[in-house]
Amino acid sequence: LYLGHVGQNLIEWLDIVTKGANCGWNFYEGDQTYAGTPPTNFIFTHPLIEYSHTSSRVCIIGGNVCRGTRWPALNGSYLYADFGSGEVWALQHNGTNVTQNSVLFTNSSAHISCFGIDPSNGDPLYAAIQSGDNSIIQRIVGPIPFRFSTASNFRGQISLSAARTARTTEIILFSPAPTSRHRRQTGRVLRPIHSTPAAISIS
User: Fold this and answer.
1) Three-class SS of residue 47?
2) How many CB atoms lie within 10 A of CB 37?
3) Measured between alpha carbons, how far is 75 from 92 in angstroms, rounded to an integer?
4) Which helix (H) or strand (E) holds 74?
C-alpha cells in the first residue's frame, strides 16, 4: 500500500505502509527532523522518496498503481502528482528499492485532487478541480515508448527518457454546473516528454 504523505512546512513524501512501520511524524517531516526527540527504541521507516516545496510544489496527491493494457511499459507503476505544480510522476518499486520515479507530464492549471481507474479498461484517470467551477476528470492516454535512465534529479528520483512521440490527455467529463452537458475533448502535449516535464494545452 503506497501512501502520499502531505507534509507540514517543507517536505512532501511517499511511504509504503507495512505492519509495524513508523513513518516518524512528528519527529520527522519526510527524512528531515521536525520536532522532539524520538524514544530510544524508536525505529524510523524512511520515505521511499521526498521532495521540497520548490518549483510550485506544495502538496503531494497520492494515486494508484497502473495496471491497464494501454501502457504496458508503465504496468506496476504508482502514479501520483503535486497539487500545486501539476506534475504527474510514475514510480516503480521492486520490493526493496525505488527503481524509477519520473515526471510523465505537467498540467500546472489542473490542481489535481485525486486519481482513479476506468473499470472498463484500466486506464488511469485524474480529477482536475481547476478553478472549482470548471472541474473535469481526465484520462491519461497515448503510447509511452520509453527507456529508463539513472540520472538523479532529486532524492529518490530516477529520470525517464522518452521517444519523440506526442501525448494526449482526454477530458472524459466536464461539469462546471449541474445543467451543463457532458462533452469530450482532447489536449495535446506541446512538446515531447523527456526527463523534463511537458506542458499540456487543453483546447
Assistant:
1) coil
2) 8
3) 9
4) none
Non-local (6+) Cβ contacts of 2 within 8 A are 14, 15, 16, 17, 48, 62, 65, 78, 80, 91
Cell numbers representing residue 128 in the block? 482536475
pLDDT at 138: 92
Phi, psi of 74 (to 5 degrees): -100, 5
Q: Can you give the pLDDT at residue 195?
A: 30
Please state, in angstroms and rounded to a whole number, the distance separating the CA atoms of residues 48 and 23: 11
Predicted TM-score of the model (pTM): 0.72
Instruction: Kindly give the pairing relationship between strand 200-202 and strand 185-189.
Output: antiparallel
Task: Tell which residue, 66, 65, 28, has the closest CA to residue 47.
Answer: 28
Can you read off the three cell numbers belonging to residue 22? Answer: 513508523
Pick the closest to residue 136 from 104, 119, 114 (CA basis): 114
Query: How many Cβ atoms are within 10 Å of 108's Cβ, its own excluded?
Result: 14
Using alpha carbons only, what angle is made at residue 58 by residues 157 and 2, rounded to the nearest 5 degrees?
Answer: 50
- pLDDT, tens digit, 9 for 90 and up, residues 18-27: 888 888 889 9
Q: With a cut of 70, list the residues of the chain below it in pLDDT.
A: 142-203
- Check residue 9 and report its DSSP letter: S
Cα–Cα nearest to 159, from 171, 151, 169: 151
